[in-house]
Amino acid sequence: MPNVLAAAVLAVVGAQPLGRLVQKHVTTSADLDGLEIVGVTPAGRGLIPLYKVKTVYRGA
Predict the structure, then answer these.
(1) I need a surface site. Which of 2, 13, 20, 34 has the fewest CB within 10 A?
(2) Cα 10 to Cα 4: distance, rounded to the nearest angstrom
(3) CA 19, CA 48: separation in Å to the nearest integer?
(4) Mind giving me the DSSP string for 3-53?
(5) For the segment 27-38, what is each residue's pLDDT rounded down to a tens digit?
C-alpha cells in the first residue's frame, strides 16, 4: 500500500511539468501554412456528429 500511495503522489506531482514538456516538444504546430483539407466524410453513427477530415501537407 505505501508503494501505491508513493506512486500516486509522484504521478500527481510530475504530471504538470511532464505535460508541459510533452506539449512543447511533441504536440503538433499551429502553423498551418501548406496544409490543405482534401476531404471531409461523416464518421459518426450516434447522436454526436463525427467527421473524418483528410488533409495533405504541400509545403510552404
Answers:
(1) 2
(2) 10
(3) 29
(4) HHHHHHHHHHHHHHHHHHHHHHHTSPPS--TTEEEEEEEE---SSS--EEE
(5) 777 788 899 999
- What pLDDT does residue 32 have? 85
Answer whether 0.70 is exceeded by the pTM.
Answer: no
Whole-angstrom distance, CA of residue 57 vs CA of residue 29: 13
Measured distance between the N- and C-terminal CA atoms of the chain, rounded to whole angstroms: 55
Strand 35-42 with 51-57, pairing: antiparallel
DSSP 8-state code for residue 2: H
Q: Which residues of the chain have pLDDT under 50?
A: none
Decide: 42 and 50 in contact? Cβ < 8 Å.
yes
